[in-house]
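From the pipeline queue, job 12 of 40. The input is one protein chain; the requested action is below.

Action: predict structure.
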Amino acid sequence: MASGSAGSKFSGLGAEKYGADQEQDANSALLELDKGLRSTRVGEQCEAIVRFPRLFEKYPFPILINSSFLKLADVFRIGNNFLRLCVLRVTQQSEKHLDKILNVDEFLRRIFSVIHSNDPIARALTLRVLGSIACIISERKNTHHSIRTSLDSHDEVELEAAIFAASCFAAQSRTFAVGICNKIAEMIQGLATPVEMKLKLIPIFQHMHHDAQTAAKVRQLCVDMLPSYPARGFVIVTLHTLSLLSAKTLIDIPQQVELLLHYLQQDPRRAIKLKVLSDLHLLTKKAPHMWAQHNLQVLCSFISITPYDNLKLRALTVLSVLAESSPLITKESSLMEVCLENCYHSNIAISTEASTVLTNLACQLSKGASGKVDEALLNQCVAAVESLLTVCVTETTEQHKLMLKKSLGCVSCLCKSFPTLASSLADTIYSLLDVAQGEFPLLLYQGLAAVGSNCPSGLEQLRFDLLDRFQEVSAMPQDKQQDFQVLLTSLVLMACPVPLPGHMTKTLIDSLTSDPNHWTAFCVARQAARWGHHTVAVKLLQRLPSLVASEHLHFWLISLGEFCAGEEQLSHIHPDQPQHKGTVTLAQACGHYQKGTTALKASVTPTFPLEFQTQFSQLRAELLQAHANLLAACSTLQTCPPPAIATAMANVSGKEIQRTGRIGTQLQQCVAQFRMLSAKYGDLLQASFDADLTTLKSLTHLQQGCLLMAHVVDVLVLHNHQYISADVYNIQWDVPDFSRGESGGEALPPVFQDVLKMVQNTLGEAQGSAITHVQVSSVFKASCMLLREPLHFPRYFFQALQSTQIKLALSPSQRSMNDPVLVATDTQLALKVEGVIQHGAKPGLFRAVNKVCLDVSSSSDTKVPQEQKVRVDNLNNELQELVEPHNDYFSAQFLLHFPFPGNHTVCAEASVIDTSGLSWKTGPKMTLLVRSFDPNAPQPPRHQQPPPPPPARSSTSRF
């Protein structure tokens, strides 16, 4: 029964996400697995069991999961031990779906019945299953009793399973943790418990963090145990358990750091020292601010005196974490001495880690209150990193390759914190290309790309050298040529200003058009579009649409070519050219964007809806059209200037807009259009939850550009007299900076500052006079300056590094599209909204979901009589609820009232609130048709056909 309802309710979910996949829906898939479970062959049963986790990932809703786990519990109850082992694996792999089991009592009853078996293996498997589902049965007393009883078992397998279950329940249940604490201590101290079992019992103490009293008791017990059990295994396990316990309680971290440093100094065994340093690294990442200054001194002293490289390296790793965030790190501390001693160490791993610590120290000090770093420290840091780069390229071993990646990471951090160092560091990396071999040149080019991404001006002095390197790529083997071509082209595009010089453009195009690898040409065109070199992108994209087999890819490439062609046209606009030429050029760009938008819509598929790309290109086309309307309005001053009595008419009517004549009305419409575009960019910004930071900044600048243009027109033409002797730089942007998680924060782009400066000068010259050609010319120049700024297509336009999707389901649901849900007017509809959050390969790369906001509203399709409206305060429902997803699942219930009979449309929409508190309109939106009826109203007579006449009686009709 449950399986049937699951299939009818969620079959549409699979069709949405797996539109191109021909797999079965939830109902048929569950029926097939159920058929496999009832098979008489063990192999088919096992195959059906192991396919359940994939079914849960595809249809992660409670009805299906509840039905599936009940079936698995039946298999566990009546099956053999091998089938029970398979069920155990399913429960362990599906941990995040366990809380969706609705019939927990029945599920536990079927599983728990096996605990009374005479087979110790069956009891052990049962204990492990109980431990795996501890999150939903943590307070069941019968389970607690069974685990305590099994801890006294003489069977080794059952005892290990009981220890596993005890560890799982101690992590979930405070009652169990407090009750089992003394028994675990007795078993550890008892002589009857084998040594290997004691080592497995000690880690249970890491979960005794539910209250301070129990945590303190356990800590004291473990600390007292250390002198009594000095064996290496006991010391390592006990110290690690105490470290994990301290990381959860937090208040014991300073004492645990002291204890670990004591063993680091006093215990001569290297294995214990290595484990101590590993635990210190764990605690440092958890709470670096809880370190004391003398703790840092002890660690630095240990690094200076230890003769073992592996210990020195592990200790430097701890210092690296401290240097990133700890407030006690200063340039006067002993940390500086340790770094300078080891950044030129003969062991390249140690020198790399010491240089990393030095880099983190410099970057951390730059973020301090003063924001300044000692010049000597910075020079020492740069010298250490440059020396390390030189050493890394001398050999081609895997260790040197790994160290080169770390050192290039240091270069990237330095360039981000100190942009003035970018040029010198880029020169250093480039000089190593002649001596690098194997894969190392590619890594060096990637390092240069990182420098260019953080500070593009750092590559300007290398643009001609990079172009020469690009010409040498054609002599490389074919398997290495593609990566080098794409990287070098990206570096050339980063280093060169826009537009690219003609000879450099010709060199790039000639080299890439002769290359038979068309994928390389597309990658280069994509990079050119991202860096604003649209001339290169247009020429590369011209020949690619005819070289792909897919119709959708064909239109996708055509749309890219049209977009880049439109941007190339905009580069020909100049503020000093006549207005009619700028209008013609802008009209051509608008035409290219219209063609590109049409082609982009033709490239949409169910698998790749291209929502962001379509909205982004449409907004860009609307923005260009808004500028075209603005330029057309500016030319109105010449054809239709304000009448001579315009000022008198404005004084009489009180409408200042009449002072400017017809051009004022048109410009007022342009201002409204720009503000509307700003709101649309804001909506696109809020919908781009998975976008990278650079994409969000680009959208923010486009939104600010719309507001700036509206502000310019408002200042110079519409409300000129209000801005006399005013600061036009004081613009209320009202644009939240989603890339930083706060409002404002970054300086305006240079072109915005130039526009505002020009407006300030024009306003000073006009001195509040009536509209003249000076103000209109300034508006035209401001528009041209913004249009000439090359558009950098955001990375999210081509590639999504993070993927987050929300799927909703409504209960009750419609049986069909035209069959609404029926509800009486004197009752309320209980609507349940449940959903799941589906992630891609890198969940939470840029931002993560903290809460989900569910908005439910209803609207009536039936007109309510006027005399009845006064009896109801609110005919439409508008409800909102914030829910926190648990294991990517959330649900909420709403009560909706429909006081008047008729048809209603219920809309449920989800939005996301991230960990920074920002709201994102991610969707989706689902609708439900509801028909309310009055149960007391007389039912209309039903027109039924007359019953058929009774059959004629025969002699056999009675029998």
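Job complete. Residues 662-687 form the longest helix (26 residues).
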